[in-house]
Amino acid sequence: MTPEHDDHDEMENLVAAFVLGACEPGEAEGAHSHIEACASCRELTRRLSRSVAALPLATDDVRPPARLRESIMAAASASPPATARMAVPPRPRRVMSFPRRVGPPRSFRFRISGYAVAVALLAVSLLALAGWNLSLYRTVNQPPANYSFAGTGSMAGSQARVTSFSRDGITLLDFRGMPQPAEGKVYEVWLIGANARPVPAAVFTPSPGGGYQLVLTRDLGGVRTVAVTQEQGPDGTTQPTQRPQLAGHVA
Amino acid sequence: MPTKLTDGRSDQELASGLAAGDVNALGLLYDRYGGLAYSVALRVLGDPARSEDVVQDCFLKLWNGAAGFDSGRGSLRTWLVTSVRNRSIDYLRGRGAHERQEREIPLNVEATGGGADPWHDVALSIERDIIREALDNLPAEQRQAVELAYFGGYTHREIAEMVRVPLSTVKGRMRLALEKLHSYLQGRGLAYDA
């Protein structure tokens, strides 16, 4: 085995410690330089870093004392951020004089620029067509995505199975073991995107056996979470009024 | 009583608000991630007062624009908790490894109930469940290696000495653990911006 391979193997074994911030002093720089130059170690770093980014969420959920918020807000109000404090004057426009360009006669230049524009337009159209083809291919060959999640609290024992057919633009929701909602109430399904705004999707009342199948005429593009709450019947509400006890990630 | 829902601005919008000097954006950001940031600091430091200092430092650094956060390079949440974790480890290292103690969450801190934005809380609590499940599925020695490094701030050599195994074994455990976590989280639809 060559020294380069030895070095690579050694560095590859360091990547996990590197992304965890667990290298010895002095080791991290060597690892960093190697990762920058080595495509396979860069890919490994990217993959392992994603796991590390999830680790903070493994902590116990603890509420900080209220004074912490007050103290941060007081300190922030007393010192506006540097970027907002400084009013940046408009940058003076630089006026530059260029020497007169010597070139072909004007009519010839027009002809050349006309051809150039036509070629550029053709290239852009071809690229757009290729992109559209690729996206169509991916859409047509995409298998349905499946997710399942279980209820907690008052909805313990309930289950939801979500199947999204992005190709057909529909989503199936299959609920099992749902308790009957309170008198005058219905279940309402919410779709929540990255901005955390819940969008009402459907209302339903389960069968006496607790089951219900629902078809949404949309796929789950942009949706991160599907949640169910109990709301006023028969039409539900525009905003959820309670914390859902049946919810799951679908992204 | 119906739950009050707060401003549903995305993290990206909050980052823009911060850049424009909107103090309300900072408040919303704190309501969204202050608990998570504090939980991380407390897990590393085991000291509520120092944890408060670290969280305050990190939020104010973000506010003052000195933090160099670039929304094009990752999520605000990841940036914030990574910054809190690193600052906490610096605190630990600053006072010397021998001062590290077994850490427990003090009993006088309340568990989080409904936060200021229940829908972010819901998404966060689902993610937390999945990540805990993923960690629970790891062999104990792999999980230990990762937790000692990430939350304990120990280097791989220190961990090897602590658990009395060769350094190469610790490196292998760390890598296997992170690879398994990645596969598990990807299988559950969670992909994180590093």
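qc> Chain A touches chain B through 69 residues (CB under 8 Å).
qc> done
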